[in-house]
Amino acid sequence: MKVPRRRAWTAHKNIWVVLLGTILLAGALEGAARLARLPLPDIGDLFLIWSTTSQRVFTSTGSRVRTQAELVALSNPLMEFAARPAPGATRIICVGDSTTAGWPVHPRGSYPSWLRAMLPDLLPGRSFEVINAGFHGFDSFRAEDAAAQILAFHPDLIVWRAGYNDYQMFAARHLPTRAEAAALSARLWLTQHSRFYNLLRWLCGVRSDKVPGVPWLKPLTPAELEALAADYRKNITRTIAQARNAGVPIILLDLPYAAAFDPDSGALQSFPRLAHILRTLAQEEKIPFAALQDQLPVRLFIDNVHLDSEGYRLTALALCRTLSEHGLLAPRAQWRWGRLRPARAYAHALGLQDNEFLSHLHVGLALFYLQRGDASRAEAELREAERIAPNADLVFQELSQRSNPRILALLGAADRKLGFRDRADRANASARSASDN
What we know:
By secondary structure, the chain is α/β, with parallel strands linked by helices. Strands 5-4-6-7-8 form a 5-stranded parallel sheet, with helices on both faces. Strands 1-2-3 form a 3-stranded antiparallel sheet. It has helices at residues 5-36, 43-52, 69-73, 98-101, 111-122, 143-151, 166-173, 178-193, 195-203, 222-245, 266-285, 309-325, 343-349, 355-371, 375-388, 394-400, 405-418, 421-436; strands at residues 58-61, 64-67, 80-82, 89-96, 127-134, 157-160, 250-253, 289-290. It starts with a helix and ends with a helix. The longest helix is centred in the first third of the chain and has 32 residues, at 5-36.
C-alpha cells in the first residue's frame, strides 16, 4: 500500500522539527549551564582526561609560562617562570610524576626544591633556575609531547623520571574492545566540552570515582606486560633522542620503591623491570643514571613510591653526586662538597619546619591513610596535626569543609587523647551533622 506523498512529507517534517527542537533545547540548556559556570568536571574526571589524552602541561602568555589550570586543580604545584632563563642562569627542568612534584610535601619538599637549595652552595658563584615539571599521573606515553614542550623553554639540563604510572595508564589506553574505547572517548569529549552533561551527571549523583569498571584498574596479562615494557623502552629512547638532537644533556632518575606497602600490586611488579630498562638505556646511550634503590631505606617511604622530605633530600643529594661524577653543570673538581650545609638548614630555608605547613601535611596524610583503610594511622596523623597547629581552629576548619563524618570522628578521637575536650566535642558534633546530611 502506497503512503500518500503529502502524509510522508508531513511525517518527515515532524521528524525534522523534533530533531531541530531537540538541538535547540540542548543548545539553550548548554548555554544556560555555561552562563551559570556550573558545574565543571570533578577531580576524577579531570584526572581521567589528563591520564588518557595528550594534554599540554604548561601554557604560555607572552614571556611567562604557567602550569595548566586543570593540572593545578589536580593538586599539582603551580609553577610560573619566564619562557627564557635569566642572563647567566643555568636552567634545570625536572620532568616526572608525583614523585617529582614531591607528594605529599609538594612543592617545597620535593627533590627539585632541595636541588635548588643545594646547588648554589655546591657550585658557588653560579645562578640556577630549577623548574619542577612533575605532574600526578605522568607516564612515558606522554614523554615525547612533554619533551617537546620542555625543550622550548631552553633548559641547560633535563632530569627525567617516568615509569611509576605506566602500568595503570597502559590499560586505559589499550581497551580490549572498540566499543569500550569509543564509549570512553565520547565520555571524555562530553566531559571536556559540555557543562550541561556535567550538570546532568552532578544532578544524578554520578561521580567519576563511582563509575564501575575504571579501565586502568584491570590487571595486565603477561603479554600486555611485554607490550608495556616494549612501549616504555621506545618512549624513553625517543625522549633521549629529542634531548640529544636539541643539544641538551639529560639524566635519567631511578625508580626506587618499597615492597612493604601493597606487595600484591600489579604496578609494583613492573617497577624492577622498568628500572632495569632505564639503567640499560643509560648504558647504551652513554648518559648519566642516578641510582637510588639502595640509598633509600623503607622508613622514608609513605607508600610504594612516594617519599617523605628526607627521602626527597637524599634523592637530590644522589642526583648532585651523579652530576658531579659525570662532569655535568661543572667539572668534577669545581664541586665544593665541603660547603654543603646540614639538612636542617636547608629544611628551614625551604619552610619545611613551619608548623602551619606541617599541620596541613599531617592532615593530608590522615586523609590518605583513611582512604587506604588505615584508621589508626590516620588518627595518629591527626593527633600530630593538632599538636603542632598554630591555632586551635586550623585542622577543624580544613576538615569540616569536606563534610566527611569518618575523618571528623577520628579528629574527635585524636583531640580526646590530647586532652582537647572542647575541640573533641566540636569535631564529634560536626561528624554527627555530616552523617545526618
